[in-house]
Amino acid sequence: MNSEQAEILALQALTFLAADTEIMDRFAALSGLAPNDIIARANEAEMLAGVLDFMLSDETVLTDFCAANDLDPEHPARARQTLPGGDLPHWT
After folding, report:
1. Distance (Å, whole) CA 36 – CA 56
2. Is 90 domain-assigned?
3. Structural domain includes residue 35
4. What is the pLDDT of residues 9-39, one digit of tens each?
5. Is residue 91 in some structural domain?
6. N or C: which end of the chain has fewer CB within 10 A?
7. Would residue 72 be called left, alpha or beta, if left means φ above 0 and alpha means ψ between -120 and 50 degrees?
8. Structural domain range at position 14
């Protein structure tokens, strides 16, 4: 997956979050930004990475998004690896 494809998927994820006020408010609270500021910064790769980080941290949101978009649940994780900070090692 290239960075353009990853950004498109992250924009789809942001659209999914924005459609649910409760989820969007939770993301806004965690990010420290108002929902309108999040939408205004949707063209920034770092913001899109944060959207995917949020989605990947909540299995219910992730599976609902993937089901709604007919995606394999691994697809958002692969997209996240392409965006800023996604190449960091995962210590387990």
Report:
1. 22
2. no
3. yes
4. 999 999 999 999 999 999 999 999 998 899 8
5. no
6. C
7. beta
8. 3-82
